[in-house]
Amino acid sequence: MTQNAYFSPDLFRFLHELKENNRRDWFKANKIRYEKEVKGPALRFITDFAPYLGKISKHFLADPRPVGGSLFRIYRDIRFAKNKEPYKTATGIHFRHEDGKDAHTPGYYLHLEPRNVFVGVGIWCPDNPTLKKIRDAIVADPKQWQRTITAKGFRDRYEMTGEKLKRPPYGYDSEHPLVEDLKWKSYTGFARLTQKDVTATDFPDRLFEVYQAGSPLVKFLCQAIGVGF
């Protein structure tokens, strides 16, 4: 257990104010606050969470680099977006698999946003070849897939949510008993947390327990696509 909390209510206060003032001039005037209340604590947390992550699997990275590491950039890519607001109003931390280079790989995610704190485990929007490997794994061992997503620890904590295809994917039996699971575009489980969880001194322990409960899904996905767990 840590002696001091990594995150304070100031983080959520800053993000709330950023949402109300999503402009470059405001952010420039408050950049020191961002560094002190959001970025600095997040990077320290990532560094110190590495041993917890190692207890789950040695194949996932807690990378504290300020650019290109586990912490998502605050700056939005607005080149092709209709929404031209320059900054993200949530803090995202992604502990991705060592074999992956972006968010589209198995991993563990933490989302910090005022009144919207959650954990994500699994793989988000993988490419078609990766999706096929996952779907084939479900078809090849449906019992193992069902054990994974109905295990008490997972079921009590997580909900499988996200976008689905309207029809069964091409090449798969439309009458398959798990056809609804084959329609997922992402294979991700989400668990809700609170701001009080995040600002508690034992938050690393709490997050570890939630990640551990979601690890059977991550393990299934890693095995399906042929990477280590």
CATH architecture: 2-Layer Sandwich
Tell the overall outline.
Answer: globular
- SSE succession: HHHEEEHHHEHEHH
Indicate the structural class.
alpha+beta
Alpha-carbon distance between the two ends: 26 Å
Topology-level CATH name: BirA Bifunctional Protein, domain 2
| Domain count | 1
Provide the CATH superfamily. Answer: Protein of unknown function DUF1054
Fraction of helical residues: 40-55%
Query: Given the structure, what is the number of helices?
Result: 9
Which stretches of 5+ consecutive residues score pLDDT under 50? none
Tell me what you see in this structure:
The protein is α+β, with helices and mostly antiparallel strands and 229 residues long. The protein has one domain (9-225): 2-Layer Sandwich (BirA Bifunctional Protein, domain 2). Helix content is 45%, strand content 12%. The protein has 9 helices and 5 strands. Strands 1-2-3-5-4 form a 5-stranded antiparallel β-sheet. The model has no long low-confidence stretch (mean pLDDT 94).
Provide a compact summary of the structure.
This protein is of the alpha+beta class and 229 residues long. It has helices at 9-20, 24-29, 31-56, 128-140, 142-150, 152-157, 179-182, 195-198, 203-225, and strands at 91-96, 107-112, 117-123, 159-160, 187-193. It is 45% helix and 12% strand.
